[in-house]
Amino acid sequence: MALVDRRFFALLAIALFAVLGLILPQGARSLVIQMMIFSVFAMGYDVCLGLTNQCSLGHSIFFGVGAYGAILAIVHLKAGVLTSLAGGVGSGLVFAVLVGIVCVRLSEAYFVIVTAIISAVFHLLAMDLTWLTGGDDGLSVSVPPFALPGVTLSLYQPLVNYYFVLFFLAAAYLLLERIVRAPLGKIFVSIRENEKRVRFLGYDVLRYKLIAFVLSAGLGSLAGALYGLTLRYASADYFSFYWSVLPVVWCLVGGLGTLAGPWIGAVLMSLFQYYVSAWFTYYLLLFGILVLVILKVSRKGILGYILERGGR
Amino acid sequence: MTADGEMLLEIVDVSRRFGGLAAVDGVSTAVRKGEIRGVIGPNGAGKTTLFNVITGELRPSSGRIFLKGEEITGLPPHAICRKGLGRTFQLTFVFPEMTVFDSVWVGVYGTMKAGGLFFSRADSLRGVKERTEEICGLVGLGERMNDLASNLSYGDQKVLEIAMALSTGPSLLLLDEPTQGVGPKEADTIVKLIECLSKSMSILLIEHDMDIIMRLCHNLTVLSFGRVIAEGSCEVIGSNDEVQRLYLGEST
Question: Which residue is closest to B112 within chain A, CA to CA?
Answer without folding.
Answer: A202
